[in-house]
Write a structure and sequence with these properties.
Elements (H helix, E strand, L loop, with lengths): L1 H19 L23 E7 L3 E2 L4 E6 L14 E7 L2 E5 L4 E3 L2 E7 L4 E6 L10 E7 L1
Antiparallel strand pairs: 1-9, 2-3, 3-8, 4-5, 4-9, 6-7, 7-8
Length: 137
C-alpha cells in the first residue's frame, strides 16, 4: 500500500513537473485592421449657411464661420472638403480659387475659423445666401 502511494506520488510529481516545463506560446489577438491597411477615417459632415457677406475691399466679399473647425476631427490624415450650393449648382471650393457664378471663390482658414472668399470686382454678389457643406474624411 505504501509502495503504491509512493509510486502514485512520484508519477504525479513527474506529470506536474513535465507539464510545468512545457513552453507556453503567447497568442496575440488579431489586429482590428489588417496589416498594411489604415483604419477607416472618421467621416463628419457639417451643414452651414453663408449669409453674412462682408465687403473686405477690392471687390472681395468674405463670409466667416467662426469656431466651426474647432471641434472637427481634422488631423494630418484627414481631408477637409468644402462644397457650396446655390440651387442645383454645387461646387467644390478649396484654397485655390474655383469658378462659382462667373467669379472666383476660395477658402481660407485658421485653426478654428473657416472663411469663404468671393471676388466679384465692383459688381454685387450674384447670391444672397449659400448652402455650405463641410466634410472631413
Amino acid at each position: 500500500m505504501k509502495h503504491n502511494f509512493l509510486t502514485m506520488l512520484l508519477a504525479g510529481s513527474i506529470i506536474v513537473i513535465g507539464l510545468g516545463g512545457c513552453a507556453k506560446e503567447k497568442f496575440t489577438p488579431f489586429p482590428s485592421t489588417p496589416i498594411g491597411l489604415t483604419p477607416p477615417a472618421q467621416h463628419v459632415q457639417v451643414n452651414l449657411v453663408a449669409d453674412n457677406w462682408v465687403n473686405s475691399g477690392n471687390g472681395i466679399y468674405v463670409n466667416t464661420f467662426g469656431g466651426v473647425l474647432s471641434n472637427l476631427p481634422i488631423t494630418g490624415g484627414n481631408s477637409l472638403k468644402v462644397y457650396v450650393q446655390d440651387g442645383d449648382e454645387v461646387t467644390v471650393i478649396g484654397r485655390s480659387p474655383a469658378m462659382f457664378k462667373g467669379h472666383e471663390m476660395w477658402i481660407t482658414n485658421t485653426r478654428t475659423d473657416l472663411a469663404l472668399n468671393y471676388e466679384c470686382g465692383d459688381k454685387q454678389l450674384p447670391f444672397g445666401t449659400l448652402h455650405v457643406v463641410l466634410q472631413v474624411n
